[in-house]
């Protein structure tokens, strides 16, 4: 059974195309990768800041406010902090990648 050898070879060599990309396409791919890396870097920074900015008030509230002490267990605290971090990461990464894509759309190669 399994995958026939012809299909396996086709799937293994899927990224090797018969077409040769032009230098302009190579440059476009390089700029796209740079935009993605820039977005990931900015998103990670924003997530770290959001983690600290949401963890400190959450932990202080759990220790000082009676309602939070009674109702926010460890899972709820972790959910609050992680939700803020995840939202900050994706929002910032998306904005950064779109801004970089707009810059590259205006770029005219000669």
Can you tell me the overall shape? elongated
pLDDT under 50 segments (min length 5)? Answer: none
Distance between the termini: 53 Å
- Radius of gyration of CA atoms, rounded to a whole number: 23 Å
Computed structural class: mainly alpha
What is the typical, i.e. mean, pLDDT? 87
Q: Estimate the helix proportion, in percent.
A: over 70%
Question: What's the tally of helices?
Answer: 4
Query: Which range does the strand content fall in?
Result: under 5%
Task: Give the key terms.
110 residues
Describe the fold and architecture.
It is built from four helices and no strands. The protein has 110 residues and is mostly helical. It is elongated and about 65 Å long. It starts with a helix and ends with a helix. The relative contact order is 0.14. The mean pLDDT is 87.
Brief overview, please?
With 110 residues, the protein is mainly α. The chain has 4 helices and no strands.
């Amino acid at each position: 059974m399994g995958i026939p050898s012809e299909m396996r070879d086709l799937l293994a060599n899927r990224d090797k195309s018969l077409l040769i990309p032009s230098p302009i396409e190579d440059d476009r791919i390089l700029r796209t990768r740079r935009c993605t890396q820039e977005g990931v870097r900015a998103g990670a920074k924003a997530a770290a800041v959001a983690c600290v900015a949401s963890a400190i008030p959450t932990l202080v509230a759990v220790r000082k406010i009676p309602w939070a002490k009674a109702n926010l267990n460890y899972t709820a605290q972790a959910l609050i902090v992680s939700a803020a971090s995840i939202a900050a990461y994706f929002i910032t990464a998306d904005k950064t990648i779109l801004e970089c894509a707009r810059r590259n759309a205006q770029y005219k190669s000669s």
